[in-house]
Amino acid sequence: MKYTYYYPRASVTVDIIIFCQFEGKTKVLLIERGNEPYKNNWAFPGGFIEMDETLEESAVRELHEETGMCGVRLHQYKAYGDPGRDPRGRNISVIFYGYTDIKNSIVAGSDDAKNAGWFNQDEIPDMAFDHNKILNDVKQFLKM
Questions:
Q1: 133: left (phi > 0), else alpha (psi -120 to 50), else beta?
Q2: pLDDT in tens, the chain (144 residues)
Q3: How many CA atoms lie within 13 A of 61 on its CB side?
Q4: 34-69 pLDDT, tens per residue?
Q5: Does pTM top 0.85 for this prediction?
Q6: Residue 143 and residue 120: Cα distance in Å, rounded?
Q7: CATH T-level assignment (fold) for domain 11-141
Q8: Which sequence spans correspond to the domains of the chain?
């Protein structure tokens, strides 16, 4: 069944923040975007939800598709939805975070991520969208 609405609707995405300890330093998993907007910029793994998935299922799928990583317990943090945060249009992103260990830290960019890598939490590059703000908020929430 197709629906028609008189009001514009926002898109929904998930973004995933994964932390790992490497030689006593906390690192964050980022992907290098392969597509516009923000092509070649670093960002969190993530993407649009599918209509038949829960939010967590979308997060698990996107994490695996873009980095190859699986088996990470994810926790829902909160949603970000300021107008203008995504140049493609109104987009609300639900943020998940999790921790992995060094045995589960091998990643590679795939799907629409051209690269994936670990960055020291205190040496994060300028990221796409509002991801720097989100990371700062999550670190404050987790008291990191």
A1: alpha
A2: 677 788 888 999 999 999 999 999 999 999 999 999 999 999 999 999 999 999 999 999 999 999 999 999 999 999 999 999 999 999 999 999 999 999 999 999 999 999 999 999 999 999 999 999 999 999 999 999
A3: 13
A4: 999 999 999 999 999 999 999 999 999 999 999 999
A5: yes
A6: 16
A7: Nucleoside Triphosphate Pyrophosphohydrolase (3.90.79)
A8: 11-141
CB 84 within 8 A of CB 95: no
- CB of 17 closer than 8 Å to CB of 28: yes
Q: What 3-state DSSP class applies to 39?
A: coil
Helix (H) or strand (E) holding 60: helix 55-67
CA–CA gap between residue 113 and residue 65 (Å, rounded) = 9
Determine if the peptide bond prior to 125 is cis (ω within 30°). Answer: no
Give which of 90, 101, 104, 103 is closest to 48, Cα–Cα. 90
The answer to whether 38 and 50 are in contact (CB under 8 A) is no
